[in-house]
Design brief:
two-stranded antiparallel ribbon; two-stranded parallel sheet; globular; 122 residues
Length: 122
């Protein structure tokens, strides 16, 4: 299970005439989206995060993003969650200037990071 930061989706939201070269960063992002669509990886998200996705990406410009949103909300590729078990951690996060809008990313390690081959820790 992973959390996908909005930045990853924004940078994958490019019109595509052909597949990018294998070593390009966009190709790594598209590979992640392919794995999500294939349901090899499940995405943990909240209503707040979905709102952020839709605000930052009002119109998906390629099929990967369109399919990502479909699978996430209706296709069983996502897990709508979010209770906040880390109330004590919020104060510490604010003291080190961790941005509040990224709380959804900081909450994820409490669930437990997963290691995917070739992708490091996510």
């Amino acid at each position: 299970m992973i959390v996908v930061d909005t930045n990853v989706l924004q940078k994958a939201n490019a019109p595509l005439d052909h597949e990018p070269k294998a070593r390009r960063k966009i190709q790594h992002r598209l590979d992640l989206l392919k794995r999500i669509v294939a349901k090899e990886v499940k995405v943990l998200y909240s209503l707040r995060l979905m709102h952020e996705y839709r605000t930052q990406i009002p119109t998906p410009r390629n099929e990967y993003l369109r399919t990502f949103f479909e699978v996430l909300t209706a296709g069983g590729g996502g897990l709508l969650n979010w209770r906040t078990p880390w109330k004590e951690g919020r104060l510490a996060a604010r003291e080190c200037r961790y941005p509040g809008e990224d709380d959804h990313v900081a909450e994820f390690p409490l669930i437990g990071p997963t290691r995917f081959p070739g992708m490091g820790t996510t």
